[in-house]
Amino acid sequence: MALRLGLLGIGKIARDQHIPSIKANPKFKLVACASRSATVDRVASFKDLASMLAGVPDLDCVSICTPPQAHFDAALMALRAGKHVMLEKPPTLTTRQIALLADEAALYGRTLFQTWHSRFAESVDAAREWLSTRELPSGRITWKEDVHHWHPGQRWIWEPGGFGVFDPGINALSLLTEVLGEEVFVEGATLEFPENQQAPIAANLRMRTFAGAEIAAEFDFRQKGEQSWDIEFETKGGRLKLSRGGAGLEIDGKVIAAEAGMAGEYPRLYARFAALCAAGKSDVDWRPFQLVADAFLIGERRIVAPHEI
Ligand code: NAP
What we know:
Elements: E1 3-8, H1 12-23, E2 28-34, E3 44-46, H2 49-55, E4 61-64, H3 71-80, E5 84-87, H4 95-108, E6 112-114, H5 124-131, E7 138-144, H6 147-150, H7 166-179, E8 184-194, E9 202-209, E10 214-220, E11 228-235, E12 238-243, E13 248-251, E14 254-258, H8 265-279, H9 287-298, E15 300-304
Parallel strand pairs: 1-2, 1-4, 2-3, 4-5, 5-6, 7-10, 8-15
Antiparallel strand pairs: 7-11, 8-9, 9-10, 11-12, 12-13, 13-14
Helix pairs in contact: 3-4, 7-9
This protein binds NADP nicotinamide-adenine-dinucleotide phosphate.
NADP nicotinamide-adenine-dinucleotide phosphate binds next to helix 1.
């Protein structure tokens, strides 16, 4: 029987990806939603999670699509109500909170799927496999996008806990930690904060792997023209470029896959969520979040020109 699902936070990602992916997957039935100002046609609509849980007590699972500031309390409430939980990235406000949620999921015997949608992009498995047989001296992340185009009017992204440029940047780190065959850590960072905002508009990270590979990352929200969501690896056996957020793949300059956009990521996420619920397992990996937190901890802070939302 289909899992009865409630969706929390009806904004851009809920409408663009979650609702179509849930509707296309026979393992789920979207029966309720909760959002302060939005509703979904032909679905029971509530103003908040508590009312949704009370109004539809036989929900099996809740998918949380609010900004990160609201993730912890919502996930905790849903788990304690006995629901399986799927959680949008970035997971929570602090690394301690996601660790606590993982413990709660185990305590209540529920599934917690803490998602990294970019890991479900088209070329990720091929990149991981190719890299697994090659020695890696260096890598470079270039993640530059126009915040006005991709996050129009999103105030939360500039508020404490909104992650600023790390809201997209953490996707690159989720890919890095997925395709590398070894652990990676932050050695240094520079974070640029607009003088009128509380989250970074740009950041540079210097990372190193256990085996000594140097990984540089450049994140920027001020990009005009061509946008970049690329990771390049120089290995002793050739060069690999994962582009378009993990959809495209080039090896030694030859195009292997030229997929665009996020197509396929969310259908695969919901397929994985259904499998985790059926198996009674969780999937939580906060390493990308630790890299961001460590950049905030040790990064040099620079104040730059004001940014208007
Ligand atoms: P959004 O368009 O701002 O939508 C989020 C919705 O959550 C809002 O419409 C709002 O609806 C609700 N909400 C609840 N508490 C909120 C709060 N404290 N502040 C603001 N809104 C609140 O954001 P989004 O782009 O969908 O992103 C949501 C999450 O998905 C983020 O964690 C983001 O990183 C992730 N994500 C986004 C994308 C993307 O392309 N946009 C891609 C992948 C992942 P009500 O006002 O009706 O309650």
